[in-house]
Amino acid sequence: MNEAYNLAIGMSGFPSPTLTDVILGKGSSASVNGELRLLLSQLSASRGLEATWLDPGPSPRTYGRGDDLIVQNITRRISLERNVSGLESLDGSIISEMEGESTIDRLRRQIDLDRKSIHLLCRELEEERNAAAIAANQALAMITRLQDEKAAMQMEASHYQRMMEEQAEYDGEALAEANELLAQREDQIQELEAELEKCWTQSGGGGPTEKEDNQLPFEEQHSTAALLEDERAYISESLRKLEKKLHLYSNNNTSTDLSNSDAIEGTQESILLAKGEADLSTFQEEISSLNKRLKTLEGDRDFLEHSINSLKNGKEGAQFIREIACNLRELRAIAIESK
């Protein structure tokens, strides 16, 4: 910087535009650019260095595009500093120029402005770097999180797929077992039907067909039940009459015992007494047989009621009635053979 100042002092004899002319654009822009280029070239020649401000390439500094960019950068930084800081106004520049501000002071001010501009640029660059680093870290974190979520979802999907496969396999096994059990039931039904046909054949009857079983007349069943009810009522009435007669004979026997105490003995009374005792034993036997028959009829009535109710269940009820009829025929055949 000292060399630049000395060179600037040495160049004090050259006519150069003022700072106000540079800022306001007064004078020829070509002359301003030419003087700045000359100053930069002398600085570079005195130090023997390459320009590193905007063109860091290996070629030495020459008059060209790099100088234009440097000049534009300097003018832009001067105007930027003027607008940002607000420390220097147009009137102040005119006043300072009018007071006899030298070129060295202008260059010093320009260097200060450039330093401030460079500092601001470095700070902005650092902020941009920090923001870029933060954004990159956030992007990496998001990518990592998305990869973790993707892995978790893939693991969960594979788990559910494995569960579904196991469930499908279990359902297939259960379905196969159900089909096998159904086939066994069908075989058992066929065996029972064959055995039933065999029983019907052995009993001597062709056996009712399924159509006939479905068309069993309910009126016949109801008429049979009505006949059983009538017979039951008749037996009950007979039992009541026999009980009255038995009660009457028992009273006669008591009165006969009382008359025996009075020493009334006759041939006709003794005959009547013997006949009454015989009738009493006969009545008792008849009452016991009627009671047995009544119980049998009640059982038959219950059986018929269950049979009628089972016929309402369709094929199962008809199958049940056929089995009962087959068993009854077998019992009847056994009873006939035993006789």
Major β-sheet profile: none
For the secondary structure, the number of strands is: 0
Q: Which ranges are low-confidence, i.e. pLDDT below 50, for 5 or more consecutive residues?
A: 1-5, 7-29, 47-64, 86-98, 206-220, 254-273
Structural class: mainly alpha
Helical percentage: over 70%
Please tell me what the overall shape is: rod-shaped
- Quote the beta fraction: under 5%
> Average pLDDT, to the nearest integer?
66
> Any idea what the radius of gyration is?
68 Å
What string, H for helix and E for strand, traces the elements in order? HHHHHHHHHH
How many helical elements? 10
Distance between the termini: 151 Å
Number of domains: 2
Plain-language structure description:
It is a single chain. Helix content is 83%, strand content 0%. It folds into two domains: 2-137, no CATH class; 210-338. It has ten helices and no strands. α6 (103-203) packs parallel to α10, α8 (218-261) runs antiparallel to α9 (267-311) and α9 (267-311) packs antiparallel against α10 (315-338). Mean pLDDT is 66; it is low at 1-5, 7-29, 47-64, 86-98, 206-220 and 254-273. With 339 residues, it is mostly helical. It has helices at 2-10, 19-24, 29-47, 65-85, 90-98, 103-203, 210-214, 218-261, 267-311, 315-338. Residues 136-198, 273-307 form a coiled coil. This is GTD-binding domain-containing protein. One of its GO terms (molecular function) is myosin XI tail binding. It is found in: Membrane.
